[in-house]
């Protein structure tokens, strides 16, 4: 299912979400420019330097640059479809989560979810030499937070093979989405790689669970703004 819009009305403009979308698109535009101007070798070097490689991070924990990839990898993407899919999900679900967390806590939440996503992927596959790129771990955290904050919302979705566009309960949409990530994650382990098909399924699952935990904690602390 592809989300097209949600029914939750935002009270404030999603400034930080828009900036995150712009940052992801801007970095990908830089990747395209680098490829066009300097060739594939330059692009590969750029991605290798800034992507998160679990084996490299664990082998050189004293190297600050390796730890920096925990952030930089969230803004790199492997294809046009990859970046557009990520920023679309972020745009659909991120604004309302930002609305409740506020412009200062929301980016911190986003980064923490991304760290947790990367951490679970590293834990599951510590010897991986495959560069991890993409914002999907952090965005998965946004989806987890949305599930807790707006369980009664509806998501207008493109549903192939049934009816082109249907309103789907957000709970159903997000639980099915998470179940698919977990199912593929288990399948990837059984197949001998935790990133089957080039997708870090466990990062998606880890980010989602982190988003749930973080937003529950934020609610308990009274850090959420009124809708």
CATH topology: Rhomboid-like fold
CATH class: Mainly Alpha
Number of domains: 1
Mean pLDDT: 93
Looking at CATH, the homologous superfamily is Rhomboid-like
3D architecture notes:
By secondary structure, the protein is mainly alpha-helical. The protein has a single domain (2-220), classed as Rhomboid-like fold, CATH 1.20.1540. The protein is 66% helix and 7% strand. The chain has helices at 15-38, 40-50, 54-59, 64-72, 80-124, 136-149, 170-190, 201-220; strands at residues 2-6, 154-158, 165-169. A 3-stranded antiparallel beta sheet has the order 1-2-3. The longest helix is centred in the middle third of the chain and has 45 residues, at 80-124. It is globular, with a radius of gyration of 17 Å.
